[in-house]
């Protein structure tokens, strides 16, 4: 199945200091597995090649504005980030995209939210639809958290979703593999970066 550039976008989830870097809020859990996996370099390369092929890149950030926005403290995860919300303010150092991802061109989009899914409780699905996008190529960390939640959410919203398997990572390789196996069943299927790029036509 081909991927038409005029109908597809890369959805790049939570490539933020708080998630990826040792000094970030989740650094103790994720920074070393992310570094060891080499996922940042692969994702940077995929984003650049996808952009060159004509695909827009949509970055999502998990941030908490004053007043908490759409945050709901209905899980231990959301309660924890709510308690540490100063670290997640939109202009806080931890909320920034990591430098490798921060060289954005004009057509790239950054969308902020307060849910585990990058598509939940925001206008991003409507913005994507207005761009003519019905297919999402998903990258990000962590595979079993925001990636899986967003991919399932996007599928339920009617998007054709492909997770880019080698541009995701989790704290544990076995959890990463199990999450990808789930996503193969619950989305249009996982692809490697090379497989996805080989399908792009435009």
UniProtKB/TrEMBL annotation:
Q: Which organism is it from?
A: Streptomonospora nanhaiensis
The name of this protein is Nicotinamidase-related amidase
Q: Isochorismatase-like domain spans which residues?
A: 9-195
InterPro entries according to UniProt: Isochorismatase-like_dom (IPR000868), Isochorismatase-like_hydrls (IPR050272), Isochorismatase-like_sf (IPR036380)
Annotated Gene3D superfamilies: Isochorismatase-like
Q: What are the protein's UniProt keywords?
A: Hydrolase
The family database entries (Pfam families) matched by this protein are listed as: Isochorismatase
Q: Please give one Gene Ontology molecular function term for this protein.
A: hydrolase activity
Please verify whether the record's keywords include Nuclease.
no
């Amino acid at each position: 199945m081909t991927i038409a550039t005029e109908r597809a976008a890369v959805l790049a989830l939570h490539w933020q200091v708080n998630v990826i870097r040792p000094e970030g809020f989740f650094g103790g859990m994720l920074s070393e597995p992310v570094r060891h996996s080499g996922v940042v370099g692969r994702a940077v390369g995929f984003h650049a090649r996808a952009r060159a092929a004509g695909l827009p890149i949509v970055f999502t950030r998990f941030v908490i504005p004053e007043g908490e926005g759409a945050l709901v403290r209905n899980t231990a995860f959301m309660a924890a980030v709510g308690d540490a919300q100063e670290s997640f303010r939109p202009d806080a150092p931890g909320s920034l995209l990591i430098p490798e991802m921060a060289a954005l061109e004009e057509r790239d989009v950054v969308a902020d939210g307060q849910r585990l899914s990058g598509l939940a409780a925001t206008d991003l699905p409507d913005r994507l639809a207005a761009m003519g996008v019905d297919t999402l190529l998903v990258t990000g960390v962590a595979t079993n958290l925001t990636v899986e939640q967003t991919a399932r959410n996007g599928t339920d919203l009617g998007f054709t979703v492909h997770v880019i398997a080698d541009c995701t990572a989790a704290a544990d390789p076995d959890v990463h593999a199990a999450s990808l196996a789930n996503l193969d069943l619950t989305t249009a299927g996982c692809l490697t970066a090379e497989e996805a790029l080989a399908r792009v036509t435009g």
